[in-house]
Fold this sequence. Notes:
two-stranded antiparallel sheet
Amino acid sequence: MLALLTERLAPALTRLSENRYLSAIRAGMVAVVPLTIVGGVFMIVAYLPIAGWNARVAPYLPVLQAPVTATFGLLGVVACFSIAAELGKLLKQDPIVSASIATVVFLMLQVDLTDQTFRMDGLGSNGLFTAIVYLPFARAAERQRLKVVSHVVP
Length: 154
């Protein structure tokens, strides 16, 4: 049984872990961890489970909620930027350009086409899935743009 695992499963999992896109997602999500820690600390302070703490902290609750809203409200944007930057590094391209293009496309995906409004709820944790899943498509679009530019420019 152990031989089967080491002969068949280990090489497949090694190939999977060396995938560029998965490596970029893994490294890019590490950049989100400090945001969650900072937001989590403020959330813990705001809602400590101590008797009488709610009454004591009530006047300061809006101030304590601001960092929570700011950090958790931008998780999708930061994840998109950092994952795209990591992918740019892995593909030996300028990481800032890759991250900028991906972030602009991610922000464009947040526009509601029915009434042309910007959906803010997609910038936070609700947008994490979008930021991760659309990245290969954004990469393919960037590759097509480079092909078009190379044919136009002499």
